[in-house]
Amino acid sequence: MTHSLRHLRLLPLVLVFLVALSSAAFAAGRSDRTQVGNAIYVGLGEEVQDATCFGCSIRVRGHVTGDVTAFGGSVVVEDQGQINGDATVFGGDLRIDKDAKVARDVTVFGGRIRRDPSSTVGGDVTNMGGPGWMFLIFLMPLIFLGLLIALIVWLIRLVMRPRVPAAA
Question: How far apart are the C-alpha atoms of 34 and 38, rounded to whole Å?
């Protein structure tokens, strides 16, 4: 193997190292929590910047200074829990218990909002519940993309088709 090809094999390792180093540098000053498949729990007396969960749920008893976002899971803001940003849930439910606070907007797609009357929401409350919204949000773009690919394939086949000369 030539000298330049050996260096080329090391390129992916160097890129992975640089990405890990840069993400660690950004996360050093913040206490974000991001999970895939594992629930996030912000305990009483705890403070977290942002909480983001893919395929899991988030429970807030403490203080989230930023946003809370769950994809395919639920969010529960328990007694005295606080969210200073937005609470957004895709494909799950949101429950806001007694004396809990969300400073900005609350948005739920494909789920329900259960809110205690003594809870506080500082912004707008938007609920697009039911499976129809999930279809509209996730499946319609995929259907459109599939139709666009089918059109491109049809046009390529039309252009590549051999031409037959007309009979005289």
Answer: 9
Rounded to whole angstroms, the Cα distance separating 49 from 1 reads 49
Q: Provide the token pair at 98.
A: 């007694």
Helix, strand, coil percentages in the chain from 3-state DSSP, rounded to 5: 35, 30, 40
Report in angstroms the alpha-carbon separations of 130 from 6, 78, 84.
Answer: 55, 24, 27
SS3 44: coil
Specify the amino acid at residue 111: G
- Whole-structure pTM value: 0.64
Q: Is the pLDDT of residue 28 over 50?
A: no
Q: Count of CB atoms within 10 A of residue 75's CB?
A: 28
Looking at residues 50-79, what average pLDDT do you find?
95
Residue 22 token pair: 């840069």
Structure tokens at 152: 């491109």
* Residue with tokens 């429950």, as numbered in its chain: 95
Q: Report phi then psi at 42, rounded to 5.
A: -100, 105
Taking the mean position of all CA atoms in its chain, how far away is CA 165?
A: 56
